[in-house]
Amino acid sequence: MKYLILILMVACVACSGTKNNGTEAAAQQPAGRPGFNAKVEADADSLFSFVEQQVALGPRTPGTYAHTTCGNMIVRLLRHYGVDSVVEQRVPVTTFDRRRFAARNIMGCINPDADRRVLLVAHYDTRPWADNDPDTQAHSMPVMGANDGASGVAVLLETARLLGRDVPQGLGIDLLFVDMEDSGESGGAEETWCLGTQQWVKSMPYSPTNKPRYGVLLDMVGGRDARFHREYFSDEGAAQHVDRIWAVARESGYGDRFINSRGGAVVDDHLFITRAGIPCVDIIESVNPHTGSFNPTWHTTADDLSNIDRNTLKAVAQTVLNAVLQ
User: Fold this and answer.
1) Enclosing domain of residue 144
2) Residue 203 included in any domain
3) Looking at residue 288, what is its pLDDT?
4) CA 1, 41, 314 angle in degrees (round to 5)?
5) Is 162 left (phi over 0), alpha (psi -120 to 50) or beta?
6) What is the pLDDT of residues 200-226, one digit of tens each?
7) In this model, does residue 13 exceed pLDDT 50?
8) Residue 223 near residue 309, CB atoms below 8 Å
9) 246, CA 20 to 30 Å: which among 30, 63, 285, 323?
10) What is the distance between the alpha carbons of residues 237 and 272, in angstroms, rounded to a whole number?
11) What is the dihedral of CA 57, 58, 59, 64, to 10 degrees?
């Protein structure tokens, strides 16, 4: 997971393909596309289970069996939940320390023929080094990434579970699972981060008519008692969408979670997506935006399942679902 830049301010610091006809029915499916008006409820236990399944694989650091298996699991679940098409992009990338990998981005498209589209994004790789751990001897250990990685993926998979076969007519939802987000240089140039996303924006699968109206990035959305401020770059590049999502959060009963004040500036996947022409909002926990601090488990060996909060996952997933379906 990226890094946060302290900024001083006056008031605050398209896809294509055929539908996969899965034989297993997803639980609690909402009403079908024609006349869709059902209340779609995110399930906290389902969300937690998605995090748990990823963590059970171990750290999903690039080049490992766990990383490959996690990507395969995402593809399998998207197809299982009836997502219309699943497209993979494999591209060569080089990290700041000159290691070479084949990044694997995965995109599931729901209702690919719809011109009115929304893009939801999360990274599924985890950081190879716990370089923020208070124990310096742990700095060479990989991060489990229960919050920083698995939590955002869980929200996207829950969206697929609930809407993979049923979305409002005319609405398309693209679920983008990006790779190689978290192998950047701590405190280094922004280009060392979000390598998968930087490659994806070079060949986005959209025409001028079906490019998503906006995107939402889910990152570190499962921490205990988490709070989400308006991330600086999101406010600069996608203010109207931040306004609406935070308003939806208040209307949904989560105003105490989504704090309507500006937080710090985070180098994250949304930055490159916004620059590519899709205004993107980063929903990311900021414990204290004035001092630039993330969740205390960030880039440490403590980013494990014991520090994941079902209620946080539910609050974020429900807010995103309500905003997308509004």
Assistant:
1) 38-325
2) yes
3) 65
4) 35
5) alpha
6) 999 999 988 889 999 999 999 999 999
7) no
8) yes
9) 30
10) 11
11) -60
Report DSSP letters for 27-55, one per residue.
TT----STT--PPP---HHHHHHHHHHHH
- Place 100 in a pLDDT band, splitting at 50, 70 and 90: very high
**Which SS3 state, helix, strand or coil, does residue 92 take?**
strand
Burial class (CB in 10 A: 0-12, 13-18, 19+), 219: buried
pTM of the model: 0.90
Asked if the structure places residue 18 within a domain, the reply is no
Domain count, the chain: 1
**Cβ-contact 176, 194 below 8 angstroms:** no
Question: Over 60: is that where the pLDDT of 32 sits?
Answer: no
Q: Is the pLDDT of residue 16 over 60?
A: no
pLDDT above 60 (res 184): yes
State both tokens at 59.
Answer: 């750290």
Backbone φ and ψ of 131, nearest 5°: -80, 0
Question: In this predicted structure, what is the pLDDT of residue 2?
Answer: 65
pLDDT at 25: 33
User: Cβ distance 317 to 257 under 8 Å?
Assistant: no
Kindly write down the DSSP assignment for every residue of 197-224, as one continuous string.
Answer: HHHHGGG-S--TTTS-SEEEEEES--BT
* Residue 28 or 113, more confident: 113
Please check whether residue 2 lies inside any domain of the structure.
no
Whether 270 is in a domain gets the answer yes
**CATH number of the CATH domain containing 249:** 3.40.630.10
